[in-house]
Amino acid sequence: MFFSKPYIIYDNQKKSASERIRNSDEYKQKCAAIKSEADRQQQAYNAEYSVAKNHYETVILPQYQAELKQWQDRKDNVIKAAEQELAICKKELEELYQNSHMIPLQYQNSYALQYIYNVVSTSDYDLKQAIESFDKYEQRRLDHELIRQQQAANDLAAEQIMQQQEANDLAAEANDIADRARREAKWASAVNAVQQHNLNKTVKKYTQRKK
């Protein structure tokens, strides 16, 4: 690409003017002033950060750590007290089971006891009747669970049968396609044989005429 002479002169003049500006005292003074202001702002930011960092390290963090320790201590005390109370309740419950002989061993769990307690406390049933009610309730629950499991098994078996039927249909379709392809191949072979035979006859007749 070629440039005209006036453009080259203008470009040289522009470079010379830029160089004069960069070397002028006014330009250097402005650059120095800008750098001085930037340094001043950076020093202010550094001082502000230093103050904030010192406040965090000497006030906020120690206060947080002290409050965290207090909370941890309270939590540990609550857990310790709860564990001690639980141990006492378990011991008392075991002693009650051993001494009263009122609740048979198989019903000595929170699930059965909660049901029996609810029945006794909300009806005229005695302990024996409440236990019988629990047994009936459990039997119904187990029956329902067995029915649910059987239904799930039936659904799974039906799905498997459907998937097998789909697989059989796909296999039958594939076999039908293969049979059609084999038949078409046989027809094509027979047609080709007939055409070749007719061609041979035509060639033979033409050869005999030439003789």
Provide the descriptors you would attach to this structure in a database record.
mainly alpha; 4 helices; 211 residues; single chain
Care to describe what's here?
This protein has 211 residues and is mainly alpha-helical. The protein has four helices and no strands. The chain has helices at residues 5-23, 25-100, 110-122, 127-210. Helix 3 (110-122) packs across helix 4 (127-210). The longest helix has 84 residues, at 127-210. It is flat, with a radius of gyration of 50 Å. The mean pLDDT is 83.
Q: Could you outline the blueprint of secondary structure elements for this entry?
A:
Layout (H helix, E strand, L loop, with lengths): L4 H19 L1 H76 L9 H13 L4 H84 L1
Helix pairs in contact: 3-4
